[in-house]
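Pilot study result, target chain (174 residues):
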Amino acid sequence: MRRREGFTLIEVIVAVAVAGIVVLAAHRIFTGVADGAKAVTVARQSLDRSVNARRWLKATLLSLDPPFEGRVNRASFTSWQLVPGGWFEQQSTQLLLQNGDFLGTAGGETLHLADGGTDVAFDYLLDPGADTKWVREWISPVSAPLAVRLRIAGCGRQDAGCVDTLLFLVKARG
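Predicted structure:
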């Protein structure tokens, strides 16, 4: 009996098939990791935008000055805004829903506060207390409400029935 050196054709085919499966599995694992990393980055950016929008709304409403015009679907007032020079200036501010985006404008700058909204509704708090009333409109050249309740419907989610309700305190009445 004579010994042969090398591999048979079947052994070579099996080795190539196993190597191909290993390469395919490694590719799928790395692709999944990369897609997961992109999804986490997108989610983090969305959360950052949302938190920054709420932070801006809170600071803006806490620094507002009359006159205050609060309607059912928008609010207009004067607030103290940070300017590029690093100090604060009084600027005309407006909050409204336009083309599905909840926007805040101050001093000519427009901020996208929320995307995909289908409706926005403002309510205004008259007085503190357990039996207090929220009103749908507040128009005053000399004072502002105690708090603003903001409801944004849709919020860019697939569930169109979702409503985000946010409550913002307003500084002491002027």
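One observation from the pilot: Residues 41-169 form one domain. A full batch analysis is planned for the follow-on phase.
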